[in-house]
Amino acid sequence: MNLAPHLETPSTSGLQHTATGSPKPRASLAHPVLQLLLQHKRITFAQAQSLLQHGDPVAVACVRSGAIEGMALCRMLASAYKMPWQDLEDINPRKVPRQLIDAARCRQHWAMPIERKDAAVVVAIADPTDSTARHAMEQALRSKVQWVVVNVEQLERMLDFYHPQPTGDDVHMQSEPDEDGNAVAFWQRILAQAVAWRASDIHIEPQEIGFQVRLRVDGLLRALPPASPELRPRLVSHIKVLAQMDIAEKRLPQDGRMGATVENTRIDLRVSSLPTLHGEKLVVRLLGDKHRPALSDLGYEADDLAHLHAALERTSGMIIVTGPTGSGKTLSLYACLDVLNLAHVNIASIEDPCEMVVAGVNQVNVNERAGLDFATGLRAFLRQDPDVLMVGEIRDRTTAGIALQAAQTGHLVLTTLHTNDAPGVLTRLMHMGVEAFQLAASVHLITAQRLVRRLCPLCKQESTLAQELDRLGLHGSGLELLGFAVAPDPAQRVCKPLGCAQCMDGFKGRVGIFQIMPITPGMATLLVQTQDAQTLAKHAQSEGMRTLREAGWVKVFAGLTSVQEVLGVTHA
Ligand SMILES: [Zn+2]
Q1: Does the reported pTM lie above 0.85?
Q2: Which end of the chain, C or N, has fewer beta carbons within 10 A?
Q3: Ligand 1 centroid vs 89 CA: distance in angstroms?
Q4: pLDDT value of residue 128
């Protein structure tokens, strides 16, 4: 690649070319990165001076101090020096050459080979104006180098993964396979990454050749760079030992639990193993309450929240949360429990299993083998004078019967079901054999929910509804097909994802969309008269209930999520 000629002229650079090994001269205000930022008025003169005192190389200091966002600096440098830039989230980890250069040098120069291309090596660099770094890398690689500018933060994550900071005996994932320390260090790195990405699960999957590790982040799986195939058996054994599973048993599924400490935070992990064609697959679920949001942070609209609070203030009756697996039902229930969790209230919950530990709540795990199911647990609770009961899930008539009985006799009962929408809960329970009058008497509120990915507030782009529908090939689709009650303005402002260093693919975290169905006196009367789900749904809508799709549009119009997300998880 040809660089802009002035880059090669040391006089424009605060950093003089030096031979490898000799100390770098101190950066000055003439440093091209500072000059560039000053020119673009991204920093003040005073900021530039304080950045020089930061201790890190200038480009790193700019990002770490928050003076500029990593991806913005990367693009700015690439544009100023007419160089290509690379989003490191997009590279193919399988192509990353590992053995070309030592880790210390990569860390020292904030540069790292990311691919071999023809006769050259593509090297990612945080600061392309750092001629010392470039010269040192070129010498060490003894190869033609194609430079690409990258985001400082992404590069740091890559360096941490491929070239971890030496810890005592300096373990590398590609060193001799007979070192158990390898697997231990690798596992710690996977965990650290999982926590950093706020992953919910870690998948360790054997493949025909080698294995892959994927993290579920905001509902989607993301692969980690591949590790040496010899590492897998040791990694799997290490995790199984920690989770107190039988390491000799590889042909039957097993479950285990373990705790871990990552960055001073204690997390609980649930491990399950499954024998597959190519060997044991492990899924590690990260449990923990550190990300447990409050009820008001989950995405309920103001009117929904008012209904929910009204139901929670009652001393008896039932609140039911419904939705498919992974729709955030548990988070909603726990957030409700937090509202109710006062010193004078006796709360008991039976779950399969308890996903988070809540102080002040008597939590019990279902244990089918020992004969402790939802129904027996509920009966036992009722003998202990609880005020609030949480039943993880109603799966059968017996459980439904006891739970409803409890709701009618002075207990507030919270539970979940698996149905598509809120009206569906009523029909499902009646199919289980519950009488309509029982439901009318004890169910106060039903909420259905889904989770959609939340647009990253830093990089989301404005668009219009018409443009977005056009892009999805849905222009001209009927209103009913899209689930609009009234025709929206085609120029309605909506947002779409872009992607930046602070997020993944333009999304960060998730937000719930909710259908809230209070069982009003009108609904209760109708329920006893007709058991028809559609009639009930129509009536609820006439009382102000939104469909899930309508609730989704509210989130889209508020710029919280994208059109595609809502169309993907709801139906009209
Ligand atoms: Zn972003």
Answers
A1: no
A2: N
A3: 12
A4: 94
pLDDT of residue 6: 40
Identity at 376, one-letter amino acid code: T
Q: How far is the CA of 22 from the centre of ligand 1 (A)?
A: 39
The Å distance, Cα 90 to ligand 1 centre, comes to: 14
Q: What is the mean pLDDT of each run of 10 residues along the chain (572 residues)?
A: 39 38 61 91 87 86 89 92 88 74 84 87 93 89 90 85 52 43 87 86 88 86 84 92 90 88 82 88 80 86 95 95 92 91 85 78 86 91 90 94 94 95 95 95 97 94 94 80 86 93 84 96 94 92 95 96 94 80
DSSP-assigned letters across all residues of 150-209: E-HHHHHHHHHHHSPPP-SS---TTS-TT-HHHHHHHHHHHHHHHHHTT-SEEEEEE-SS
**What gap in Å lies between CA 145 and CA 100, rounded to an integer?**
12
| Tokens found for residue 488 | 């929206």
Kind of pairing between the strands at 144-150 and 120-125 = parallel
- Angstrom CA distances, 211 to 9, 111, 173, 181, 225, stand at 47, 27, 14, 19, 10
Could you give the residue ranges of the DSSP H alpha helices within 383-421?
Answer: 397-408
Task: Please report the pLDDT score of residue 504 as a whole number.
Answer: 66
In angstroms, what is the span from residue 64 Cα to ligand 1's centroid?
17
Bridging pattern class, strands 265-276 and 254-262: antiparallel
What is the CA(409)–ligand 1 centre distance, in A? 50
The whole-number pLDDT of residue 230 equals: 85
Give residue 34 CA to ligand 1 midpoint distance, Å. 24
- Cβ-based neighbours of 204, under 8 Å, separated by 6 or more: 211, 212, 213, 232, 235, 236, 239, 281, 282, 283, 284
Alpha helices in 110-151 (DSSP H): 131-141
CA-CA-CA-CA torsion sign (247, 250, 255, 259): positive
Ligand 1 mean position to 323 CA, how many Å? Answer: 28
Distance from the CA of 87 to the center of ligand 1, in angstroms? 12
The alpha carbon of 328 is separated from its chain's Cα centroid by a whole number of angstroms, namely 12
Expressed in angstroms and rounded, the spacing between residue 504 Cα and the centre of ligand 1 is: 7
Return the SS3 of 274.
Answer: strand
> From CA 218, how far away is CA 78, in angstroms rounded?
31
